[in-house]
Design a protein that fits this description.
Helix content is 55%, strand content 13%. The chain is of the alpha/beta class. It has a single domain, classed as P-loop containing nucleotide triphosphate hydrolases (Rossmann fold, 3-Layer(aba) Sandwich). Strands 2-3-1-4-5 form a 5-stranded parallel beta sheet, sandwiched between helices. Helix 1 crosses helix 10 and helix 7 packs across helix 8. The protein starts with 7 loop residues before the first strand and ends with a helix.
């Protein structure tokens, strides 16, 4: 029996509040297997996990809430205020997330798989993906969406945006770009066109 080959793999990336979730959701409705690095990261740091123990060892029990679970908001405040702290957290989580994503791709059964990797530029080590799709949104629009979505102050929004790769860096590694400055219907139409193109591409 011939081995089942993993599907063609596309990494979806974009800055915070750029619209990655909306893009990923629509691809999923089209029958594409979608795997999200952020979702995997949350699973990896569940209460009692080895990854959570490593985070506590690095940052102290201040990053836990009263129930012993990770205090995400507290940890976010720490890592976005301290570059070295952010690198420490990334060194703990990124290798684990990459390994889990590879496992997910191996189990995918759609014609191609979509990996949602917000920190694709920052984390590197994803040379094994076949294409990179970037959601492109101007910084000021990201900033407005982020403050509205998370009810945060402009200073924290700016710090979170500054901590990520720049718009130019993401566009530099992208094979495909999808703009998200209009309506959801316009975004979905662009995704439909990309999906049709990807299906034709992987079936050549």
């Amino acid at each position: 029996m011939l081995p089942i080959l993993p599907p063609f793999t596309i990494a979806l990336t974009g800055g915070i509040a750029s619209g990655k979730s909306a893009v990923a959701h629509h691809f999923h409705t089209l029958g594409v297997d979608v795997f999200d690095a952020d979702t995997i990261a949350r699973e990896l740091v569940a209460r009692g996990s080895a990854a959570l123990a490593d985070i506590v060892a690095a940052f102290g029990k201040q990053v836990l809430d009263a129930s012993g679970a990770l205090d995400r908001h507290g940890l976010r405040a720490i890592v976005f205020a301290d570059v070295q702290a952010r690198h420490t957290l990334e060194a703990i989580l990124h290798p684990l997330v990459r390994a889990r994503l590879r496992e997910c791709v191996a189990q995918a059964r759609s014609p191609y798989a979509l990996l949602v990797i917000p920190l694709l530029v920052e984390s590197g080590h994803y040379q094994w993906v076949d294409r990179v799709l970037a959601v492109d949104t101007p910084r000021e629009m990201q900033r407005e969406r982020l403050m509205a979505r998370d009810s945060i102050a402009p200073e924290l929004a700016d710090a979170m945006l500054d901590a990520q790769a720049s718009r130019e860096q993401r566009l530099a590694i992208a094979d495909d770009v999808i703009g998200n400055t209009g309506t959801l219907a316009e975004l979905d139409a662009r995704i439909d066109a990309l999906h049709a193109w990807y299906l034709g591409f992987v079936r050549r």
